[in-house]
Amino acid sequence: MSAEKVAKKFQVPGRLVTLISITTGNVNDTYRVILRTTYSEKQFILQRINKTVFTNPALVMSNMKRVTDHAHRRIESEADHADRIWQLPRVIPAKDGRDYVTDYLAGDVYFKTSYDAQNLNRARVQLKLCDSIESNEAPMLRALENRS
């Protein structure tokens, strides 16, 4: 089954507009997926688990789901007191309710993850950095002057 067909088998609305192979990984085949609706565009990561390295992909996905769900619960419980923004992937379920899609003919297992509000979070981090630079401008200038 092609990566394009697999990308459409997850619980994400929209039509597939882009699927780009990301070749910088070492183990799994990774793709950047862009889905578009009339009013939005979302990006996701699709990976084909390397069955030579990970001989039990269902166990890999079970562990990934358990860890990411735990991390999200913990972060959400501390959100009111957090001093930073966390960006963690979420495992996106397949249309059949499982955490992955299996290509039974090839024996391949694929999973999809996303970052909720990734652009908003990135913008918040950048604004926080700008605020920090502005509030520390005088000490930074003094430090630079002392070095000369």
Tags for this entry?
148 residues, alpha+beta, Phosphorylase Kinase, domain 1, 2 domains, six-stranded antiparallel beta sheet, 4 helices, 6 strands
Mean pLDDT: 83
Report the helical percentage.
25-40%
Low-confidence stretches: none
Secondary-structure element order, N to C: HEEEHEEEHH
CATH class of the largest domain: Alpha Beta
What is the fourth-level CATH superfamily of the largest domain?
Phosphorylase Kinase, domain 1
The count of DSSP E runs of length 2 or more, i.e. the number of strands, is 6
Total separate domains: 2
Q: Architecture of the largest domain, CATH level 2?
A: 2-Layer Sandwich
Would you mind describing this structure in some detail?
The protein has 148 residues and is of the alpha+beta class. It has 2 domains: 114 residues, 2-Layer Sandwich (Phosphorylase Kinase, domain 1), CATH 3.30.200; 32 residues. It contains 4 helices and 6 strands. Strands 1, 2, 3, 4, 5 and 6 form a 6-stranded antiparallel β-sheet that branches. A hairpin with a 4-residue loop joins strand 5 and strand 6. It is elongated, with a radius of gyration of 20 Å. It starts with a helix and ends with a helix. The relative contact order is 0.15. The model has no long low-confidence stretch (mean pLDDT 83).
Outline:
By secondary structure, the protein is of the alpha+beta class. 37% of the residues lie in helices and 27% in strands. The chain has helices spanning 3-7, 57-77, 118-135, 137-147; strands at 15-22, 29-36, 41-49, 89-92, 101-103, 108-115.
